[in-house]
Amino acid sequence: MDLCHVPASREKGWYLTLMAPNVKGPNYAWLDPSRLYCHPQGLQDCVADLLQPFQGDAIDMVAGIDAMGFILGAAAAATLQKGFLAIRKAGHLCVQTVAQPYTDYSGREKVMEVRTDAISPGLRILLVDQWVETGGTMRAAIELVERLGGVVAGVAAICMENSEGGKWIQERYKCSHCVPPRLQPRFDQHQ
What we know:
alpha/beta, Rossmann fold, seven-stranded mixed sheet, two-stranded antiparallel ribbon, 9 strands, 29% helix, 27% strand, globular, cytoplasm, transferase, Adenine_PRTase, purine salvage
């Protein structure tokens, strides 16, 4: 992996080629974006592409979803000069929380939680995760934010698949992702 090479032409999504395919089986996501995060220009361009549709929008805080959403979410928060809220898998926060059960992309039942003192009514939150495959994880995060009175200002992920859950989110919230339309079918089919 060459962490120094930057292509002469950097069109939206050029950094997607930095992702590595799954070699461990069906309990893992089909692509691993962590190599993209190691590439300084790739990470910067990815975050810029994710935030571009929200320029000029009122965003009070960025929330990232456990665990890989923490990376993009924290980078987006730093770029926007906003605070960052971690939405965690249950059992990791030692403060008062509210919890939401959900089914993840692999069909496993899980519970997500967020601290109760970070979201005040009307606070506009940009939700960030690395991937929206079935939409279950992101939908649970949306429910947590809204249950605490927050407003989902938008949803951002490297890829938002055109699954039933992905479409549900895209129909109801302003969304941003990095996959160019010509490549979307390949990502939806995990190719």
